[in-house]
Amino acid sequence: MSALLCSFLSHWHHYQSPDLSCQLLQFLYLPNLVVFLVICISSLLFLLAWRKMSGSGKLPPGPVAFPIIEDTLLLNMKNFAKYGPIFTIHLGSERVVVLCGYEIMKESLIGLGEEFSGRGSMPIFEKSTKGRGINFSNGEQWKQLRRFSLTNLRNFGMGKKSIEECIQEETCFLMERLRNTHGGDCFMSPSDPTLFLTHALSNVICSTVFGDWFDYEDKKFVTLISLIQENDKLQHSLWTALHSFFPTLMDYIPGPYRRIFKKCSGSLDPNYPQDFIDVFLIKMGEQKNIPSEFNVESLARSAIELFVGGTGTTSITMKFGLLILLKYPEIEEKIHKEINCVIGQRRSPCMVDQSQMPYTDAVVHEIQRVIALVPLGVSRAVARDVHLKQYVIPKGTTIFPALKSVLYNSREFPNPEQFNLRHFLDENDAFKKSDFFMPFSVGKRICVGEGLARVELFLVLTTILQNCTIDSKSQVE
């Protein structure tokens, strides 16, 4: 540092001339000044980050923190055991608490549900959502939106017989499309049915949220699906610029804007709401003269989140499920036998069949367990200072519930890396439930679409295997 200062002074003395301003400008481009500025700025950032990370001595311990260098590489299941059920890591300058294991999840997310009900800081998502919508809002806004959404989604069939009938109807279209692709035969090889699956699952949530069904060839629908698939690729990276995805997605969703225009033209009938958008607009009208969380921005965000959540995760799970069945043809053969015994070929599968099909039910559960689609869960935040074990977690601290640590618990699921149906079948081959099965998380922030996803996974998989045989010309790894 002193050498750089001496260099600066010598240059300053040398440039004492009438044309000082010109010479000073030349000095500003000198390499040593550039290095000097870089060192100063880096040191300042380092000190600020270190100070922020050292703000509380009551957080649980964790790996040694190196400011600016992120601990993302430490988020590996193999490293979890040595840090215990609760530990602190650093993502850049932010302190993050990781919850690892069933017991700590039960104690915190369920036992202290209200305290752990916040949504964690996710700057990339915040840029696009602005803290609105069902998933990314907090406080009273989130409570109102979630309560309203759950109530009205149930009213439009979610969790009822009507949504089951909707899924059955859509799977009929799916089977017809698959048969047409194979010239009347539904022997699923070698084509990839992923796109058709996404179309079918998207139409189910579209009918509930937007009141619309789409033809699989509809250009806007195809564009929308491609954006959903792109989001599926990006969502596993926290640092990917997803904010560029959501604004584009909004342009291709016809429901919100069509409904808003319908309201403006006076054609919305408050007595006969047809979908989630309609009831939201009615609620907006009821609260238009008072400060309210029900506004156009919250409507758009909520509709997008319901659509993306109701399409992406379930279609990915189905895709991995079919790949797993390709790897284990003996499992597929047993499912075929169970379908023929319980359902036959003359009617569509229904949810009543699930209790009589323990083997198929176990397959659906084990698929979700082994793929652990969201291994670290979606970030949460503590709504106020909270005591957990011997630690004090300050208000606003980001929490990551490591769901995979529960789904891969070796005591509950021996040899968790292996696909083993005994994880959900007892010695009598009856289905056995497990409290450790939490792919949709637990507590007050549990996935809004959990019920829909469970019905879709069972009905779509059984319908496909009732009508199709899955095979591959190449060996599946």
Automatic annotation (TrEMBL):
<dbReference type="GO" id="GO:0006805">
    <property type="term" value="P:xenobiotic metabolic process"/>
</dbReference>
<protein>
    <recommendedName>
        <fullName>unspecific monooxygenase</fullName>
        <ecNumber>1.14.14.1</ecNumber>
    </recommendedName>
</protein>
<keyword id="KW-0560">Oxidoreductase</keyword>
<feature type="binding site" description="axial binding residue">
    <location>
        <position position="447"/>
    </location>
    <ligand>
        <name>heme</name>
    </ligand>
</feature>
<comment type="similarity">
    <text>Belongs to the cytochrome P450 family.</text>
</comment>
<dbReference type="InterPro" id="IPR002401">
    <property type="entry name" value="Cyt_P450_E_grp-I"/>
</dbReference>
<keyword id="KW-0479">Metal-binding</keyword>
<keyword id="KW-0503">Monooxygenase</keyword>
<dbReference type="GO" id="GO:0005789">
    <property type="term" value="C:endoplasmic reticulum membrane"/>
</dbReference>
<dbReference type="Pfam" id="PF00067">
    <property type="entry name" value="p450"/>
</dbReference>
<feature type="transmembrane region" description="Helical">
    <location>
        <begin position="27"/>
        <end position="50"/>
    </location>
</feature>
<keyword id="KW-0472">Membrane</keyword>
<keyword id="KW-0408">Iron</keyword>
<keyword id="KW-0349">Heme</keyword>
<dbReference type="GO" id="GO:0005506">
    <property type="term" value="F:iron ion binding"/>
</dbReference>
<dbReference type="GO" id="GO:0016712">
    <property type="term" value="F:oxidoreductase activity, acting on paired donors, with incorporation or reduction of molecular oxygen, reduced flavin or flavoprotein as one donor, and incorporation of one atom of oxygen"/>
</dbReference>
<dbReference type="InterPro" id="IPR017972">
    <property type="entry name" value="Cyt_P450_CS"/>
</dbReference>
<dbReference type="InterPro" id="IPR036396">
    <property type="entry name" value="Cyt_P450_sf"/>
</dbReference>
<dbReference type="InterPro" id="IPR001128">
    <property type="entry name" value="Cyt_P450"/>
</dbReference>
<keyword id="KW-0812">Transmembrane</keyword>
<keyword id="KW-1133">Transmembrane helix</keyword>
<dbReference type="GO" id="GO:0019373">
    <property type="term" value="P:epoxygenase P450 pathway"/>
</dbReference>
<dbReference type="GO" id="GO:0008392">
    <property type="term" value="F:arachidonate epoxygenase activity"/>
</dbReference>
<dbReference type="GO" id="GO:0020037">
    <property type="term" value="F:heme binding"/>
</dbReference>
<keyword id="KW-0256">Endoplasmic reticulum</keyword>
<dbReference type="InterPro" id="IPR050182">
    <property type="entry name" value="Cytochrome_P450_fam2"/>
</dbReference>
<keyword id="KW-0492">Microsome</keyword>
